[in-house]
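Continuing from the previous page of notes. For each protein in this section, the sequence appears first, followed by its structure tokens. Read the first protein now.
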Amino acid sequence: MREKLKLFKPVKKTRVYEEIVVKVKEMIEQGKLKSGDQLPGERELSDVFRVSRSSVREALRSLESKGYLESRQGDGTYIASQSVESLVNTLASVISSEKDSQMELFEMRRLIEPQLAYLAAERATEEEIAQMEEALVLQEEAIARGETGTEVDKAFHYIMANATKNKVLLRLADHMRDLLAESRDKYLQVEGRPDKSIARHRQVLDAIKARDADLAAQVMRDHVQDIENCLFAGNYHKERGDAPA
């Protein structure tokens, strides 16, 4: 019985915005909301769901990053086109099926994150660069208070991914970061790692500002590799029964 108990894990508490995400996804999957339909504004959704506008805003951002919604500047938020959504959901389901193998997820992250940095260096607007700069300032302030800065860390990566102007990459990267949330928290709780993380982010942003795509990609590659080494040192061979090289 005790062995079976080990199979069970604590139930995660859901946040308000996550409940909104679930409800909107259900309406899309049930066909109540179709591709091209426009959503009501934040104020109306806030009244209907009886939650704060900030919770609605966070839910819409999450749904957009996962490919369910698309924002049209000056025109509102719409249900995303089915073709892109189907592609992303198919790939995301493969990632989800492999979520127990954190090292395999990191191998995929090593492929995606440097490319995000590369494209951001080529395509980021001045406004997006300013947003990344603001995220770094907030992360530095959080670390100075003795916090890990996890949420701001996520925000920096999201803004960078959004700057690529590639919706498929953005959605895959965001989905992958959700699956790696536990490992991110674990990494940032290691002494000295939050400072190292902000230093790497600063190097990436400097490369993006300089429009040096190759350097941005290399710094991000080093950053991901450093995190992987910190979390999984010696585990790769143990899981496969190999002798370490």
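Done with the first. The second protein uses the same format. Note its length before scrolling.
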Amino acid sequence: MQNLPHPLIARRYFLNDCALGIGRIALGSLLGTTCAHQRLAAKLQPAHYPPKAKSVIFLFMAGGPSQLELFDYKPTLRKYEGQLVPESVLQDQELPFIERSATLMASPLKFARHGKCGAELSEALPRLSQIADDIAIVKSVRTDAFNHAPAQVFFHTGHLQFGKPSMGSWVTYGLGNEVENLPGFVVLGNRSVSGGAACYGSGFLPSTYQGVPFRSEGAPILFVDNPAGIDEQSQRDTIDTIGRLNRHKLDRFGDPEIATRIRAYELAFQLQASAPQLMDMCDESASTLELYGAAPGSSSFATQCLLARRLVERGVRFVEIIYSGWDHHSNVADSIKNTCGKTEGAVTALIQDLKNRGLLDETLVVWGGEFGRTPMVENNPALGRSRGRDHHPNAFTMWLAGGGIRAGQTIGQTDDLGYHAIEDPIHIHDLQATILHLLGMDHKQLTFRHQGRDFRLTDVAGNVIDKLLT
């Protein structure tokens, strides 16, 4: 260690290539140099090829939407409703809650084809059917977990264990942040999901890459407002003093988390001006507010979708909206219609608004949950459940739009009962690889060395889904 420029730097930071570079780059941002986070990203993981998308809006429908009530019409279920699933279908499958004696249940919802592409959608999606030609539907997604917490963590981080970086963190680590007065990764919506903060945490990446929760009513970010009696100049002086102390500590120890702390203080100061401007929707036309069904100052899902557009319009790299209302173990058909009534209009408006503003081509929109639902009925009088569906990881549906997606198509197919994917099976790692690809990154090269191993979002698997690409 004697030959190091800073002999007190901890060995673990030096070995992770974080000792001097990250501190100087973060410090450089505060001293006025350009795009420190982009330079940090370029040092660690440069873009591998020209991107088709600049930003991502991830509409995470926590709980597991029933594909059988939304996208995957199965007339065969009507023919065999009330009968047991053939043993040849179940084989060695693990069923999380319902018994193997559960019988098949058809959806009572009507389906019809929409758009030039002829996408088959249920009556629960009247607004989404208007933009059928603007989305790509994937019916053959599968995952590795059938309980909410591990499945949500797996979807977001590519691993079943806690402590790994989330997808938004990987994206901002790989590409950096183009704006100085807003975070690169923003989280909206209901964050009290089973997977918790792990779904938007930075794991072992520097914490500057973790998702920043925004509220859609009241103060956008808690504890950012000045205390009573503190004006802007007093706050600026305080931030500068704390910054000098932190930079002294950074120069001495080289801890990357000190650089993160410096950036956090500075960003918080900038957010005191930028966040209220973001939340003030006075500049939105009446027609736009009506399109979304958004009321300024409300915390509705519609308002969150409008905020997502405003965020990517301002250069935010990754925006996630979490809506946790899809775990329908009982009365699945009516519950689906109710949940769609609260969400699908705003989602449709988001696609239309992005398209009208010329933003859809550079914004990748992803819609889906952690898994789907079984073709068997779930009835449990002890829990008050009837006509519901259980968790199903083997085959479920997601859709994507914008940002290099070949819209107006349906990819994948499930068997006649909707239990297994039989055409173009697509794993969660494949989706993750494709999202990174559209942003200009090779998922196999976007790595971070931790505990002696090069980790990546897709772990040791994943293939880009070429059929999805333009």
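What the second structure shows: Residues 179 and 314 are 8 Å apart (CA to CA). Residues 1-45 have pLDDT under 50 and may be disordered. We return to this in next week's lecture.
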